[in-house]
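Records of this kind hold a single protein each, on a pair of labelled lines. Below, a sample record shows both lines together.
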Amino acid sequence: MRPRGLGSDIRENRAPHDRSRFLKHLAVHKVADTELQVVSDLDSGVQAIVCIEKEVIERYTQDPEWQHGVITLFVLQDLEPLIRQLSQGGSVPPGGIQALKHRPIVNVYDLRNPYSCRIFINQVAMKREGYWDDQLAVRALLAHEHAHPLAECATTRSSRCLKVELSSDGLTAQLGDSEVWQGKIDGLLEVMVEKLCLYAPREVFANEVAIRSGFADALLYLDVQNVNKAAEGLRARQSLSQQLQKQVERGSLTTEGAHLLLTIADMKGYLDLALETAPFHRQERLTQAEELEGMLHEKVIPHLEPAVGRAYQRLRDGYVGLPTDASPRELAPTVESLVDILAAALRDKGLELGYEVGVVTEQEERGYCLEWD
């Protein structure tokens, strides 16, 4: 895949089936020694984001590790042009390419060529999450995405060289012969393990770089919003519990199976908050860490399954201790320990999660790397 291909549907006005995707904003700015190219198909709202992006870039250019000479900022209605052009190959975060539809901001950069990167902003997703008109939230999101290339290290490269094979025992007894339930659980476990175990170093280190670079207050602001959203999401958890109970009453699900599904939903929905709190601990920002975790223990964790609360604390501690210089074979036991934390929570609900961590290759990942929140 050639660098010039990404985003060409927008740049070259090639959208015959949708004339609204034609360019409406094109500009070039100079920030220190970095050129910022701005491309958009929106009528308004672009300039405010560009101003924040310039501030973020200016801060990062002071980092001696900064290597970007050109940054292209795409501010789009949605990310369909990017989805059409990306294949399933390369390093793709949990959820796959189609998850781009729901991601507010994405950073695409080439591990072989740190001279440039492409930031894609998804207006539909930004508005849905309440970020579009929130300048401090936008600042935090852009700071996080730009931190990913700066956070590249031996451990992040090693994380791309590992895979986890999962197997589960006890599902048939709990769920009956339902292939639908089995498929749903397998899919949830796969995404959860990929995000919380394999992808975790990249997310934790990016947040740590952003904090170290002067964006701690913006990240804390965004994380507080996320904790409040998590607390509001507990209403959906209650609704899910009621729906599962109806399945039990109909005989299509056992009581044990309902408890297991609710636990998995808790794990998938809330354990990723450890990715946000651990970087504050790693940077010894204890005041911010305590503020954030105080909210978590007040508003969220008491309402989850006890095993999930224990898993959160163990994951956070595991992330705090992540090394930055691990080879794939050195990182594998660390990933195993993270998977074991998830397995312990599932074991309490009667599911024995089997797993095997293997090294795919010890060569650096080639081609494009996608990073997103």
The chain is about 55% helix and 15% strand. The first helix runs from residue 8 to 11. Residues 279 and 285 are 8 Å apart (CA to CA). Residues 1-5, 12-20, 362-366 have pLDDT under 50 and may be disordered.
